């Protein structure tokens, strides 16, 4: 297929994807939220309740990160660091992992991360949210809203290769052979 014909077809697919995303936003707006309890997390400064993570925002993104042993979760977090100011303009943003608070702080400093981190070690938070199973931790995003004195989970999604939350994979899709077996590393 010629370059021009391929571009036309790819742009048609992109328009279809945009249409599906619009349908997804409509459906998301209709979700019946689920009540979440006020979990308590660890930080280097001490304990912090889920309700306190919202700050002055009604909405909160919580990233379910597998911790410092996962190069893929590290790559996603590197990317979140770059868009943090944009995200925090609209909602609170926190990364949680099973690592203890001191390990989180040291790893975040080594990566230059600026976002807030909390530890869900010794809690049921990740399992209750569906991000811990028989095979261990799973990465993802949960979105919460504080409304009428309740904490509500309004959406969530898993993270993985090719998802829309990691720009690296989206760039690779423009290459003729796509990701071509790419595996994230801590350093290259």
Care to describe what's here?
With 188 residues, this protein is an alpha+beta fold. It folds into 2 domains: 1-30; 33-172, Glutaredoxin (3-Layer(aba) Sandwich). The protein has helices spanning 3-29, 71-90, 101-111, 125-128, 167-172, and strands spanning 34-36, 40-43, 46-49, 59-64, 92-97, 116-119, 132-133, 136-137, 140-147, 150-158. The strands form 3 sheets. It has a 6-stranded mixed β-sheet. The chain has a two-stranded antiparallel ribbon with strand order 2-3. Strand 5, helix 3 and strand 6 form a beta-alpha-beta unit. It is globular.
CATH architecture of the largest domain: 3-Layer(aba) Sandwich
Q: Please tally the helical runs, counting DSSP H or I stretches of 4 or more residues.
A: 5
What general form does the structure show? Answer: globular
* Helical residues, percent: 25-40%
CATH topology of the largest domain: Glutaredoxin
Please give the number of β-strands. 10
**Class based on secondary structure composition and strand pairing:** alpha+beta
Question: What integer is the average pLDDT?
Answer: 96
State Rg: 18 Å
Order of strands across the widest beta sheet? 1-10-9-4-5-6
Strand content: 25-35%
């Amino acid at each position: 297929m010629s370059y021009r014909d391929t571009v036309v077809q790819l742009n048609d697919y992109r328009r279809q994807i945009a249409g599906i995303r619009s349908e997804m936003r409509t459906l998301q707006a209709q979700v019946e939220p689920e009540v979440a309890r006020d979990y308590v997390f660890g930080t280097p400064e001490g304990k912090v309740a889920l309700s306190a993570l919202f700050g002055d925002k009604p909405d909160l993104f919580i990233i379910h990160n597998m911790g410092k042993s996962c190069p893929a979760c590290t790559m996603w977090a590197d990317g979140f660091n770059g868009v943090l100011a944009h995200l925090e303009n609209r909602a609170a943003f926190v990364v949680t992992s099973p690592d203890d608070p001191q390990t989180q702080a040291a790893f975040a400093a080594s990566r230059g991360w600026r976002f807030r981190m909390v530890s869900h070690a010794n809690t049921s938070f990740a399992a209750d949210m569906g991000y811990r199973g028989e095979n261990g931790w799973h990465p993802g995003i949960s979105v919460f809203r504080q409304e009428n004195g309740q904490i509500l989970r309004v959406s969530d999604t898993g993270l993985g290769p090719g998802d829309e939350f990691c720009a690296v994979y989206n760039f690779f899709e423009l290459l003729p052979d796509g990701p071509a077996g790419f595996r994230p590393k801590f350093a290259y």
